[in-house]
Amino acid sequence: MATVPFSSDPEQDPRVRAVFDDIRATRKTDFINNMWRALAFDPALLERTWGEVKALMATPTALDPLTKEMIYIAVSVANSCGYCVHSHTAAAKAKGMTAEQHAELLAIVSLAAKTNHLATGLQVPVDEVFDLGRGA
Amino acid sequence: MATVPFSSDPEQDPRVRAVFDDIRATRKTDFINNMWRALAFDPALLERTWGEVKALMATPTALDPLTKEMIYIAVSVANSCGYCVHSHTAAAKAKGMTAEQHAELLAIVSLAAKTNHLATGLQVPVDEVFDLGRGA
Amino acid sequence: MATVPFSSDPEQDPRVRAVFDDIRATRKTDFINNMWRALAFDPALLERTWGEVKALMATPTALDPLTKEMIYIAVSVANSCGYCVHSHTAAAKAKGMTAEQHAELLAIVSLAAKTNHLATGLQVPVDEVFDLGRGA
Amino acid sequence: MATVPFSSDPEQDPRVRAVFDDIRATRKTDFINNMWRALAFDPALLERTWGEVKALMATPTALDPLTKEMIYIAVSVANSCGYCVHSHTAAAKAKGMTAEQHAELLAIVSLAAKTNHLATGLQVPVDEVFDLGRGA
Amino acid sequence: MATVPFSSDPEQDPRVRAVFDDIRATRKTDFINNMWRALAFDPALLERTWGEVKALMATPTALDPLTKEMIYIAVSVANSCGYCVHSHTAAAKAKGMTAEQHAELLAIVSLAAKTNHLATGLQVPVDEVFDLGRGA
Amino acid sequence: MATVPFSSDPEQDPRVRAVFDDIRATRKTDFINNMWRALAFDPALLERTWGEVKALMATPTALDPLTKEMIYIAVSVANSCGYCVHSHTAAAKAKGMTAEQHAELLAIVSLAAKTNHLATGLQVPVDEVFDLGRGA
């Protein structure tokens, strides 16, 4: 189920085709996952979203590719996005995440959630030394 | 402000003192941040929470210490825990996180939040190939 | 799947029947969606919930009907309620939401999520001029 | 800080005065906390909100008053509402919540958050036997 | 679907078998739900998670078993964990939760969510009297 | 407090100056709020974020400016971003949001939160007719 229609031939639209071609070339695969097929209902939104994902996640930057995927998974879990957890876990495995690293990622994510809820339940006041914005 | 009383001398309780001593020895600092002072209202909860944090975050494991802190920050941001964002950002900086890495971490966290909301708004069906639990 | 039993004939209960009849009359359709069928397990909860939704969403108020549905969708996405995203997107389309408006709604929701996470990650202090509650 | 102006004399409005009087009588105290002072900017919203809180939280129902406050705190922590955590923790203590019960509440809330994140990270399929809505 | 492989015979691993045996003995049932089958991909994570759940939820403590399950459900709903809502609702029913109590639990959870969003939208300043951490 | 240093003279960096000048020109005010001052720690992140906000929120599009701000507020409340709730409520008021519209916005946001939690607590199955992605 989805909240937008999935076209049977989204690549009839040349803007969609250009994005899909770039996804295939960037990822070196013919597979286009449903996120991009759904976004094809609005070519401008598809272009902007892919452009942003490509620039940050499929381009060499300060952090290594696997670390970036694990951070992405962490946020997706905390935001309860089932689709995103699936797609980025698959991406992390494709980038070499071992079962041991996966288990440790889940252990950290769930421990963080635990102490997040403890700190919020206790309403712990922020220590002065944590203020890195002095002068603000 | 907090939802529990902060004792002026929590280390009168020997269980609290033992945990605080272990925090000081593990982190090689005399500073005990407010999270632990707040948890001191219940020594058993303090012991269990510190034990868990120490085992995962202050002990060598499969992931390197800075990666672990960045994952912790990512979850804390998504769960809107201000205290946790402050304390783990300070910890990440103490472990060498550069301004460039910090900016990239925030860029990934916020991009993930963006696509999390897009995927949820579109109710994108999960692709069959993402199913890693076949046999379930 | 659901956490409450769905009765095969919930309208045997006159209180359920009265609510269902009012839903049909208000929406000018015979269709009763699953939210109300699930709530029928407790007629009092069904009555109060429908009464509140009807008063705000199915009655002329300060905001126009489509704007109200788009606000409802925005909250439902941020709270990760798949059912609610589906039902209110269908309602918004029934009230005239175009594909262009839908795309823009999703663009705003996801941009807001992005800057929400940035502001939380940065722990930006609130500007004094934003204080609208002076005198508090 | 607040996003609405706080009137220095909100009870000049007779609808606000009636609600504040009912809060005082119901709670047997002269103290009106800031939630109600903020809501006074819109008397209709104030009336409806207080009416709903009173009916469920200040009236004898199936669950006992302290259990109800602890459930309220649990949701408020998970939704990161600092104000609500403070006000309902104060209410729970006024209704007899001991330090031990408070610590256990926080332990359950944070353990639930932990396993919530684990189950979401694992995308655990729901067991057939948990389906209580058969026939739907 | 899941993000980890489900083994067809997870109990070949003696650590998994020991945990599953303890779950069966503790719960007096042969049924092992999918959460534990999924966690079996990492026996250490399985052991720690079950140990923690058993100690808090399957052992007599200050709060009674049904109250504990209802608090667990409340957090799971607020964190949008569908699996957890299903499994803990089933557990609460097994511990005697009536339909009336279930309806009231959902009424409190949803009212709390409502006032959480109101307080956050109003940015209500915390009343001084709610500060239970003076001296901090 | 913030997790990044606030420069006392961020406009010494010509990229920051260019963005701040564009904010001033676009908004026709000399005031630069703290969000942008915080983002100035990384000029590239500042440029991209402002560019995106300007294109969607400060440029004529399919939805009118006030509707866009109200949708932004709705998401910010649900994501518990206090800074964002403050800044976008101020923006909505500057664009003409009346007290009546503000009250109704908060009423819808909080009602949506209520039914989001009800639907999640009930685990309501999505009605077939809501499937707008047939063919997927």
CATH class of the largest domain in chain A: Mainly Alpha
Low-confidence stretches of chain A: none
- SS elements, strand count of chain A: 0
CATH superfamily of the largest domain in chain A: AhpD-like
The succession of helices and strands of chain A, N to C, reads HHHHHH
Helix share, percent of chain A: 55-70%
Largest sheet of chain A: none
Gross CATH architecture of the largest domain in chain A: Up-down Bundle
GO molecular function (chains A, B, C, D, E, F): peroxiredoxin activity
Protein name (chains A, B, C, D, E, F): Carboxymuconolactone decarboxylase family protein
Domain Carboxymuconolactone decarboxylase-like (chains A, B, C, D, E, F): 47-124
Organism (chains A, B, C, D, E, F): Pseudothauera nasutitermitis
Which descriptors apply to this entry?
AhpD-like, 2 domains, AhpD_core (chains A, B, C, D, E, F), 63% helix, AhpD-like (chains A, B, C, D, E, F), homohexamer, mainly alpha
Question: What is the element layout, followed by pairings?
Answer:
Six copies of one chain form a homohexamer.
Chain A: H1 14-27, H2 34-39, H3 43-57, H4 65-78, H5 82-94, H6 99-122
Describe the structure.
The structure is a homohexamer of 136-residue chains. With 136 residues, chain A is mainly α. Chain A folds into 2 domains: 10-59, Up-down Bundle (AhpD-like); 62-123, Up-down Bundle (AhpD-like), CATH 1.20.1290.10. Chain A is 63% helix and 0% strand. The first copy, chain A, has helices spanning 14-27, 34-39, 43-57, 65-78, 82-94, 99-122. In chain A, helix 1 packs parallel to helix 3 (43-57), helix 4 packs antiparallel against helix 5 (82-94) and helix 4 (65-78) crosses helix 6 (99-122). The mean pLDDT of chain A is 95. Chains A, B, C, D, E, F: Residues 47-124 form the Carboxymuconolactone decarboxylase-like domain.
